[in-house]
Amino acid sequence: MEIANPNASTEAKVEYGLAAEYLYDEGIKNHPAVIHATGFESADWLETEFDYNSWIGHRGYQVTSPDLAFSGHGVLEYQNEGGEHYPHVFQIRDFETEGVIFLRWYRRFQSGYDFSCQSKSNGVYARCHGCPESSAGVKPDGYDKYSCKLQFWRGGEPKFYTYHPEQQGNYGDTLPQNVGEKIYIEPGRWYCFEIMLKPNDAGQRNGEIKLWIDGMLKAHYPDMRFRDTNDLKINELDITAYVGGHCVAPRDQKVWDDNLVLATEYIGPMVTEVMSTPHLDEIIIDNTDAGFAISYSQDPWQEYTKVGGQHYGNSHHYNKQIGTGQDTAVWSFTVPKSGNYDVYAWWCEADWRPPDVPYTINHSGGSTTVRVDQRANGGQWNLLGTFYFLNEGSVVVSDDVSSGRDIVADAIRLAYSSEGSLGIVLRAKVAELRDVAAEFEAKASELRSIVDELDGTVDRLLGDATLAKFN
Ligand SMILES: [Ca+2]
Ligand SMILES: [Ca+2]
Ligand SMILES: [Ca+2]
After folding, report:
1. Which pLDDT band, with edges at 50, 70 and 90, does 12 fall under?
2. Which ligand is nearest to the CA of 320?
3. Domain 282-420: which topology?
4. For residue 236, which of 125, 200, 215, 343 is within the disulfide window of CB 3.0 to 4.6 Å?
5. Please, which residues bridge with residue 393 across strands?
6. What CATH architecture is 18-275?
């Protein structure tokens, strides 16, 4: 989501993501879209925080020093050795994702860092199972591998380094920043880097890579082909700061990394207290959250769990048989402030799913049903429309579809968009008062029947001969 920082100038467009919910990234691991997160707080970060890892030419060590760390006490320190040229990479291979992936980290180059030899940085890989461990300088064939890393060129210019079947040579393509004004790295200060890799669907050229620096989009390459089979999924995270290519480190110099997060959703910069408020404008309800409920009369909803699947978080619910809308799932919420909200739905796509799944949005202006094709557009937020909410609302999905099976109920998201016109606000308030009046009416008739009953009891009592003296 894109929110202008109220403290920044109007041109600065910093995009905040899921990190905005976690001050100083504390607890960010609990977000359903987060696969890995580390602040390098302990010396055994690699062993304790990742299930599978290996390393090549290890020259990176955790150090505990609040002065050196971006956040907390610990930080990863890399040593580039003068005259040396070797890879040092931590390879994490304990996950696999169906679709888009985001990797964010903070990096600082030592003051006076000499960028005269290119230096590689963190990134993600897809490697087919059983393929060679190292295949640098081998052009991908659509079935074996693809990757996207960041690297720093002469003058401290960040560029993509990406292997894909349409690259120009045997080594990966180097792609420069192509959005707005280029950023060149100043040694001695921290930067927030985030890269996104969205693999294409096999047979289509709809892959994408993006780069953000300090939350600002700096590079975007759409229409890419990374693979020719959907089985080739992203399954490796590389953490590295090696000096490489065809030159050597000009001298001993250091690089530090901190606050690294790998997720299936945009992460954005770390926030401090002052900046956390914009995210109150967003609500996400997953099928594992308290606001989600299911009911059925035909066939029960079932939960499908798979870590890192295309669904939001690690699971989705599905209803197998199509019906007449008797089997429903509902996401209920109270908005943080009245206004127009963009309402999105997330699902997990499959060929056999229905082409017309109804999402009914119960907003303050009534109910609106939007039908979506769950055979496509899975693994992303899909806009259902913009609706006004005075305070409460809900989104309902049902099995009232024309064909297919396994209707998905996964997650919904609301993002505040505007205040709402006077007409919309007044109509919503009138509808709310109508509800209050109806409630009073119901209570009044309830009270009336109690009074009638009491009246009858009094009549009976006074008609009783033994109580006649009270007459
Ligand atoms: Ca840290
Ligand atoms: Ca989910
Ligand atoms: Ca059903």
Report:
1. very low
2. 3
3. Jelly Rolls (2.60.120)
4. 125
5. 333
6. Sandwich (2.60)
